Structures are given as structure tokens and as C-alpha cells.
Amino acid sequence: MSEGESIGMSSCCLSGALHEGRPTGRVDNIGGLDTYIAEPKGGSKTRSVIFISDIFGWEFPNTRLLADQYALAGFYTYLPDFHEGDSLPISFLENVEPPLKKQEQLSVTEKATNAALIPTTLGPWLVKHRETVSKPLIDGFVNTVRMIPGTDTVGAVGFCWGGRYAILQAHGPDVVTPGKIGGVDVAFAAHPSLVAVPGDFDPVSRPLSLAIGMRDSLMDEGTRGKIVDLMAKKKEVAHEIRLYEEQIHGFALRSDWSSEKDKKAMDEATRQGIEWMEKYLRSGKE
User: Fold this and answer.
1) Domain tally for the chain?
2) pTM of the prediction?
3) Can you give the CATH number for the domain in which 16 is found?
4) Residue 285 lies in a domain
5) Do residues 198 and 230 lie in contact, with contact meaning Cβ atoms separated by under 8 Å?
6) Closest by alpha carbon to 192, among 66, 9, 33, 60?
7) For site-directed labelling of 180, which of 100, 108, 211, 259 has its Cα 20 to 30 A away?
8) Distance CA 164, CA 158 (A)
9) Rounded to whole angstroms, how far apart are CA atoms 108 and 121?
């Protein structure tokens, strides 16, 4: 964890719904990692985007469907298995945070049993996939993509657990490590979790867009205010922070589509990320 205040993870980060639809991309192995790839029309890799998933990983249908949306917008999109086969299963999402209607039918005992799964399952997982393990993996993948012929600029799009790593990629290349490992040109992070303030934000040097729910239990008002104030001082770095009323953690990826309000918020966050990439992930040839 970077220096500064850190925000823990709670059951709120597990909320959400599965979305209908069939991903249209393909699976390949890139730099030693299984990767879902969504290609834009024409297959140009000029503007490439790397998705950094939440704890449910690269096979989570919602994430793949969203990667398809970025491809439709013209970005060559990679969704790697940064958990190396160890993402938390969808059943964990369904058991710990079932739909609201089902929650209302659960007994006190059933709710307590579900709540007990959080520290016993999520805690060890977070230790296993800590920064010293995950960041080098992500940095290496970024470098691998940069070396793929036809690639010009690279962006990062992260959600929840992956949102923090998208912010870290916005620090730019690691000038300390030989070879300048990692660092993207543009980043978008939706409801990032486990962030450290100011440690994760002070070094940001690339355009960064944040989408945060006003009811995100992992990002209270005080923390949001500190991030807004800190980023406002970085006048040399393009940035934006959009706050979504009545939205909880995970809304940009796991909103309940049966709710018109929640689906609208998710659609707006999708547009936010795509428009940010369209504005700042510019090819040097353009």
C-alpha cells in the first residue's frame, strides 16, 4: 500500500447484478496472460486500452461486455487475467450481496452467514494479490502492449480493485526502475477501492478521469474532498472527477439494469470513460 490514508473494502464492493448479453471478442495469450480481446472495426491497434478488472476478474461477463463497448468506440481493448486464474467466483458475489428482493427474504442467520464470508474469503485474497505482486504484473503487460506492432498510445481503464491500479498507471513510467516499466498515456478509474491519499494521487502525471458514487462506502465525503483538493492543485495535469448521486460502489460495472436510475448512471460512466479516451488518447499521427 502506498503512503497515506488507506480505505478498506466492505460488502458494498460486492454489490451488483449480472448483465445479459454475449461478449463478441476473442481470447488470446498476451505476454503470458490469458486475455480477452475486443477489436475495433478495422482492427487498428493505434489506440489501445487495457482493462484492469475488479476482484471478479477477466471472465466476469459485465466487464467483457464493457470492453466490447470500448472496441465499438474505436479502441483496441485488452482485458487480461491479472489474477492469474484466481479471481473470486461469481457465486461469491451472489451469496454475499444478492439482489435486494432476495435480501429481504433472508433470515438473520442467513445474513450473518453471508457476512462472515467477507473477511474469511476476501481478506486472504487481497493479501495474495497485494501491490507488490499485482503492480509488476500490470506494469509488464503495459510494456508488452507497447511493443506490439501498430500500437501508438495506451490507456488504462480500471474498476474497484483495478481502479486503484489505473490511477497508479497514471503516474507515468517508473523512472527509477531500469527500462521505465509501466505507465500509460491516459487513465480512467471507476469507484477505485483501497486507495491511499495522498500517496496514490501526488505522483499522477497523466490525464486521469474518476467516476465516484456519492454513496460509495469505500470513499467517504472526507476522502473525496481530499482527492478533489489535491487534484485541483495539479493544474498541469488534465483531470476530472465526476460524482454520481445515489450511486454505490461498483455502479459503473454492476448496476442493476432493472432500475432506470442505476442503468442511466452506468451508461453515463461508460460514456465518461470513452469520451476521456477519445479526448486524450490521441495517436501521435493524428
Assistant:
1) 1
2) 0.86
3) 3.40.50.1820
4) no
5) yes
6) 9
7) 211
8) 7
9) 20
